[in-house]
């Protein structure tokens, strides 16, 4: 019935392949043959969600269980949601087109603060009450994980339980708890209480917050003695034995990252001070070369993809990258398999690797410089120099590359006009490197894509106490940058500061922002990360109607000792370590990679976390 | 050697466009283990071309793709390999191996077959109107292209048109011209048929039933050309 209705909708929407399902390698299980039905939801469109590796890993893990099935749900584009509401079609899963509300569990992945309105939209489309306190056993247990779960507070009243940290083991534990609770016929409240006993699980309805007159948090505490006061993140100590998909779903339509994606390592110990991922995914854990090759072989055979990407936060740091790429070339080049290496750092020993990957398929070169001067790069602990960049691009130009991406941020702590000028100077030097390359060697058509985004301070980073630049400051700096970035061969891209401003509010928001979020969604906000859909005025109206000043969250400097909304989470890195790093930043002192000696970040407290080399 | 592969585009994937279908076919070819040939250059791709793009929204029963192989193989082996590699909604029906000098499929293609399904009494009325439609020598209709609207006589482009009433309505089969100079799109044919029968818009479903080449004035399935 619903399936037929969906079919009819597909004739009148853009990109119907988003809602088709039935792709190669998707898992179709008999609904009645399993005890637990898990809907895995990505709060953005199909082509974005299907590009997310973590979702694919968890989809595979749940479907390996005999007693459970996992089906995918994505946020329908606005044309589809309008039609669904008009024709009363509820949010459905791709595999069996079952209403999401009929699942036992609904898991959201939180990759980006600006997808929060989509979560409310999806709950509403599914016919699930927005607020956890209004839900009954007729509704799924709503769980959320992912990087943004490290500050879950702005979503506290919409999500039943948060899973913090690596999800591979925890997702199975939550399924066990829900299954048992349903079999035993206990109340939903009891089920949530049991979930709160799991490692890394935070059930917000079991805690309360009190505020000081100045708006800061006075206290945060569990409401019951058995509920833990501190929630420690989950961490998979051994990546080698962790499950990984052998036959990932192959979409019919083109998705954002349309290739095989093998995670070679997790975590990063470089210690860039703006980078949340580099802090919360610690420690560094690698997959062996043998295991990686095994996974590539299986995935190539099972998908027919022609490109493999070796992903991680810093693939250049993978200890056997050179050997691996050589082995990949030897084995797969006859099949015309291309290799792409994202997030390569300049100071990695790139040359050999670049030469290897170029043999078959040419992929882009991306350099995340982040700041325009060495001083500011020292402040943010981005341990690369201009010389690194220039020698790397010169080498690449001489080997036939002509397209380079440069990433910068502006609005970083301690930034001055000199740092902005530095961005233009660096870009100009990269262009010079190209023009200095002898003509017979270099490829035609220099393209330097230079992009500058607005800095957003994030929880669990040394900059978590820092104010973000105000919108006026961002605008002024952006105008200035646009003027000085008019350089031959350079294309300058910038981001909307308004989006970064809201991102900053929600990244470090507290429980009170839930009302703002709901008001914005009721005002029509959704797909806030999509420029065409972003409605800043509606957001500002939502803040006004709730009597909340967004500047309190985005532009305020926090004092040492203030209770931060996320302080109850033990993310591995300690507040002491983060404060020490903040002080070193203020003094423009760098901190070397901890693989060259422990910096006492706190991870040693986790069993099996840091292996001394 | 080249492999001509006849396959279907099933109902559930009717919304796929040519690019999606091409990608899916390329990946299936890579999974098949057949010795497909690649282009040279920095971005090698499989040497493969579809006889004709089938619009998004329309399923097809006998679409055709032409794939260059780098080594000789048996037709039976190719068909079995592609049956394993293609999803159920894109299953192949036939393989024909031809040598490299065989003309390009696009040059042989002259006609396409469509089946229209209409539910309710309107279907019967359309079937009853077919004879009168075919008895005319000139039927003018507006053909829309990206840049212009032109009035053309579509009657000469209709090679065959036959229908039958069914329990739920009617089925109409058509074979129409499909060349660069004269292509009759199925929706234009149907709309004109509806108009000529004296009706307003009639809902219908359409699928492409085959691709043909004209031999001695008779349509022959392209794979047999």
What does this structure look like?
The complex is a heterodimer of chains A (613) and B (225). Chain A is 35% helix and 14% strand. Chain A has 613 residues and is of the alpha/beta class. Chain A has three domains: 2-229, no CATH class; 259-361 and 572-613, Transcription Regulator spoIIAA (2-Layer Sandwich); 364-495, Transcription Regulator spoIIAA, CATH 3.30.750.200. In chain A, the strands form six sheets. In chain A, strands 2-1-3-4-5-6 form a six-stranded mixed sheet, with helices on one face. The radius of gyration of chain A is 24 Å and the shape is globular. In chain A, 50% of the residues are buried. The mean pLDDT of chain A is 94. The two termini of chain B are 16 Å apart. Helix content of chain B is 25%, strand content 35%. Chain B is an alpha+beta fold and 225 residues long. Chain B has helices spanning 18-32, 75-85, 105-108, 121-135, 186-196; strands at 2-9, 48-50, 60-68, 92-98, 111-119, 140-144, 149-153, 158-165, 169-177, 205-215, 218-221. Chain B has a five-stranded antiparallel sheet with strand order 8-9-5-10-11. A four-stranded antiparallel sheet of chain B has the order 2-3-1-4, with helices on one face. Chain B has a two-stranded antiparallel ribbon with strand order 6-7.
Q: Topology of this structure?
A:
The complex is a heterodimer of chains A (613) and B (225).
Chain A: H1 2-10, E1 36-42, H2 46-49, H3 53-64, E2 68-74, H4 78-86, E3 105-109, H5 116-126, E4 141-145, E5 161-163, H6 170-184, H7 188-196, E6 201-202, E7 207-211, E8 217-222, E9 231-232, E10 260-263, E11 265-266, H8 276-280, E12 285-286, H9 289-303, E13 307-311, H10 321-332, E14 338-340, H11 350-358, E15 365-370, H12 374-379, H13 386-398, E16 403-410, H14 417-436, E17 447-454, H15 471-484, E18 490-494, H16 497-507, H17 513-522, H18 536-546, H19 550-554, E19 569-570, H20 575-586
Parallel strand pairs in A: 1-2, 1-3, 3-4, 4-5, 9-19, 10-13, 13-14, 15-16, 16-17, 17-18
Antiparallel strand pairs in A: 5-6, 7-8, 11-12
Chain B: E1 2-9, H1 18-32, E2 48-50, E3 60-68, H2 75-85, E4 92-98, H3 105-108, E5 111-119, H4 121-135, E6 140-144, E7 149-153, E8 158-165, E9 169-177, H5 186-196, E10 205-215, E11 218-221
Antiparallel strand pairs in B: 1-3, 1-4, 2-3, 5-9, 5-10, 6-7, 8-9, 10-11
Helix pairs in contact in B: 1-2
